[in-house]
Amino acid sequence: MTDYPRRVLIISNPTSGRRRRADWCERVALALREAGVEVDLYETAQSGDACRYAAEVLFGAEASTQARAVPGPGSHRLEAGDTPGLSGSGVRPPPFDCIIACGGDGTIQEVASALADHRAFCAGSVAAAATPALGIIASGRCNDLAHALGVHGDVESTIDALLAGRRMALDLGRVNGRCFCTVATM
User: Fold this and answer.
1) What is the average pLDDT across 135-139?
2) In degrees, to the nearest 5, what angle opens at C-alpha 54 toward C-alphas 119 and 87?
3) Could you tell me the pLDDT band of residue 173, with boundaries at 50, 70 and 90?
4) How buried is residue 76: exposed, middle or buried, by Cβ count under 10 Å (0-12/13-18/19+)?
């Protein structure tokens, strides 16, 4: 039995890493689809989009965003306002097994923050335990978090890790209501 995710959302920052790795998200999406994983791809347009969209997907919250959904072969078109139904208790079952941040430390931090908020909001419920995993496609300039976690900066290693279903715990800090993974700045 495989533990890799069956349905993933890739949130991509196309300007990350000075666009040197622009094709990485598509390459990972294609490899996952070939392995039978359902993949949705969402491209950000400005700072904050990754967190807003991940929160919208997880909570169904109204999000004001200029980001656009980018459909690929075998994917679903997702747009701001698409919200799978909430359960009667107001806690939504997660629509994805994994949300993958494709970008640098900022994009990864935004997605991690939304996932942490979902887990905290759902504390004590079945939905908390089912909060999607955070996947990382390290396509930024520095990739400090990815390096600290041992995530290699090449697309083949990323695909192998995602399909192997490797998981590890990640501690987050919180200052003034904002999560951070590696460095907090003011």
Assistant:
1) 90
2) 60
3) confident
4) middle
Distances, alpha carbon 130 to alpha carbons 35, 123, 150, in Å: 22, 11, 24
Q: What is the dihedral of CA 131, 150, 160, 38, to 10 degrees?
A: 20
pTM: 0.79
| Vertex 107 angle, CA 101 and 108, to 5° | 55
8 Å CB contact between 113 and 48: no
| Residues 16-38: tens digit of each pLDDT | 876 666 688 889 999 999 999 99
CA 64, CA 82: separation in Å to the nearest integer?
Answer: 13
> Tokens 């998200």 belong to which residue?
25
Q: Convert the pLDDT of each residue in 2-11 to its tens digit.
A: 577 789 999 9
CB 104 within 8 A of CB 143: yes
* Neighbouring C-beta atoms of residue 182, cutoff 10 Å: 16
Contact 167, 157 (CB under 8 A): no
